[in-house]
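lol ok so funny story. i was supposed to be doing the assay writeup but got distracted and ended up predicting the structure for this chain instead. priorities right. anyway since i did it might as well share w the group, maybe its usefull for someone
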Amino acid sequence: MPSTQFLGASTLLLFGLRAVMSSDDYIKRGDLPTSKWSGRVTLRVDSAMAVPLDVVITYPSSGAAAYPVLVMYNGFQAKAPWYRGIVDHVSSWGYTVVQYTNGGLFPIVVDRVELTYLEPLLTWLETQSADAKSPLYGRADVSRLGTMGHSRGGKLAALQFAGRTDVSGCVLFDPVDGSPMTPESADYPSATKALAAAGRSAGLVGAAITGSCNPVGQNYPKFWGALAPGSWQMVLSQAGHMQFARTGNPFLDWSLDRLCGRGTMMSSDVITYSAAFTVAWFEGIFRPAQSQMGISNFKTWANTQVAARSITFDIKPMQSPQ
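and the output, tada:
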């Protein structure tokens, strides 16, 4: 019969293991409380153009060090708060997430122009993080930079990642490279061509349910083909294109799902799975030494979901030498 002393030690070990597992379980929110700053920011893109944007910054409200910065791009005509589920989850693991919404529906800002917003936006954020009077003081380390985005926002995130050496990582949520209304041109460059030329690895989450918003031939498989070895892909077997975002208005959510297609997966699960994937990918980039257990736990979780046929999960293999 085991001794009481042995049982006590085993119990402590078990509780300790559970605590470690909990702190490395990316499916759950992280331990850091988060806060939001929002306001109108006018960016000076060049001497002739000033752009007003409704900016939202979600950041950990505790901790002494500045956090890596992730720029989150919305889908076409979507608003930054629609992605709060993904953003709040990711931020709680130690990331300052930058979002913005273009003012008004029209005129539509072409990709070529919107890509120029990032530099002045980062300059503004760096200034705020250095200002002791700002609520963002000490919260953003723009030297550790990543991008992520959904739909057209995924395309913009990919173009920034492919074109800027200061962007260390990228996660794409059901990205779309083009449409009949926005054929490839100088105003609408191809993100997949840019990624293929850059030869960079990224994280990719796809929705298996396709429709008018994520047409076959322009959706996630096109991006997967362009990404370099080492990239991750998670495809949600019963997710539709707009289930990554929730507007806060049930009728609007229903309308968007009707327009773009909806699967049987709960939107809350689409958001949680995507956020966990995002944390795992960026932790491997920004905190590789500390994240080994967390990434291992995430891959174990992913394997259970693959077995349940709720997702597929792939890591792009290294190419064999010729």
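The chain has a mean pLDDT of 91. The chain has ten helices and nine strands.
back to the writeup now i swear
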